[in-house]
Design brief:
Elements lengths: L3 H8 L12 H6 L5 H44 L9 E4 L2 E4 L9 E5 L6 E8 L1 E3 L2 E14 L4 E7 L5 E5 L6 E5 L5 E3 L5 E2 L2 E8 L7 E6 L3 H12 L3 H16 L3 E6 L2 H7 L2 E3 L5 E12 L6 E2 L12 E9 L6
Parallel strand pairs: 2-4, 13-17, 16-18
Antiparallel strand pairs: 1-2, 3-4, 5-6, 6-12, 6-18, 7-9, 7-15, 8-12, 9-10, 10-11, 13-14, 14-16
Helix pairs in contact: 4-5
Length: 324
């Protein structure tokens, strides 16, 4: 039992009732927070705000960079902002800028095809000689491999068909040729590894009743095999393939024909002040196809073994826009 003194103290609030349980929630809410704790909480909140602001800045910067990159990509694709208004169209997964067809029988559509996933198209005037249409001969490259250092002149038998050349063709090319394939253009003093020319050729005089039908996606393997038969070494074959492969892969199928030595000679004779011991000339003519067609397979004549002073030339013609 409680004494009279204890009861008096309880009534005065000086001691608590041992049987009364404290209200923990109430007591914790009313625990006073010191100034130090309050400053600590404020610092934590500031840190979180700063981290959030930094994250927003970083995300905004990334979005800005991506947007600028996208604009740069568009500019690079179209060449300039002023060309955004040009028509565009898709074919076989490739983006084309420019017209998709040309009006009039005297015009044909020409599209540049490179390793990029887009092309520029334009209408060009057809070239006829005596009623026969002529097509561009693209990028013939001439390599010379003498047994010893050799001064000579190289010329083309039909220079009137030339449309471009490097070095500049002036009564032929006057060069110094070295056994490793290096060349010196005597007119400019420039060091070269090949002679380049482009021109035009008639296609109606070719025997194109034979050839090959090749899937666009299988063009690389096809060229590797056939160019070895035709006598190109690994470097020459690689340069041939990397130039023509994007054009061939554009189409579902390609009709491919390799002109004979006699046909190439009739188109554009090569003349030398010093005759080579071995002359290898490769000319591919092809036409892109939307579907497979039957054709008698062409029998290729293997190139002669390289002996003595050797000259190699390769080039090609795209007949995809040719009228049937």
């Amino acid at each position: 039992m409680e004494s009279d003194n204890e009861q008096q103290l309880k009534s005065n609030g000086m001691i608590g009732d041992s049987t009364q349980q404290p209200n923990e929630e109430h007591d914790l809410d009313n625990i006073p927070v010191s100034n130090g704790d309050s400053q600590k909480v404020t610092k934590e909140k500031n840190k979180k705000h700063k981290a959030l602001k930094l994250a927003i800045i970083i995300v905004s910067a990334i979005i800005g960079v991506l947007f600028i990159g996208y604009i740069i990509m568009l500019i690079s694709i179209t060449g300039s902002l002023s060309r955004f208004g040009e028509p565009f169209w898709f074919e076989n997964g490739r983006l084309f800028f420019g017209p998709s067809s040309c009006g009039g029988d005297d015009m044909r559509l020409h599209c540049s095809v490179t390793a990029d996933p887009y092309s520029w198209c334009s209408c060009e005037k057809r070239t006829y000689v005596n009623g026969h249409e002529f097509f561009p001969v693209d990028k013939p490259m001439i390599y010379l491999y003498p047994e010893s250092t050799l001064d000579l002149n190289v010329s083309l038998g039909s220079p009137e068909l030339l449309t471009s050349s490097y070095p500049k063709y002036v009564d032929g090319w006057n060069i110094v040729a070295y056994p490793n394939g290096d060349l010196i253009d005597k007119n400019s003093g420039k060091k070269l590894y090949a002679l380049y020319w482009e021109g035009q050729r008639e296609v109606n005089n070719l025997d194109m009743t034979t050839g090959f039908i090749v899937k666009g996606e299988e063009s690389a393997e096809f060229l590797e095999e056939k160019l070895e038969v035709l006598g190109l070494n690994y470097r020459e074959a690689e340069e041939f393939i990397v130039y023509w492969l994007p054009k061939l892969e554009l189409h579902e199928y390609n009709y491919i024909y390799f002109a004979t030595e006699e046909e190439i000679e009739a188109e554009m004779p090569l003349e030398f002040s010093v005759e080579p011991d071995t002359l290898i000339r490769v000319r591919m003519i092809f036409e892109g196809l939307d579907e497979y067609k039957e054709v008698k397979e062409q029998t290729l004549t293997p190139a002669s073994e390289r002996n003595g002073f050797t000259v190699v030339e390769w080039g090609g013609t795209d007949l995809t826009t040719r009228d049937d």
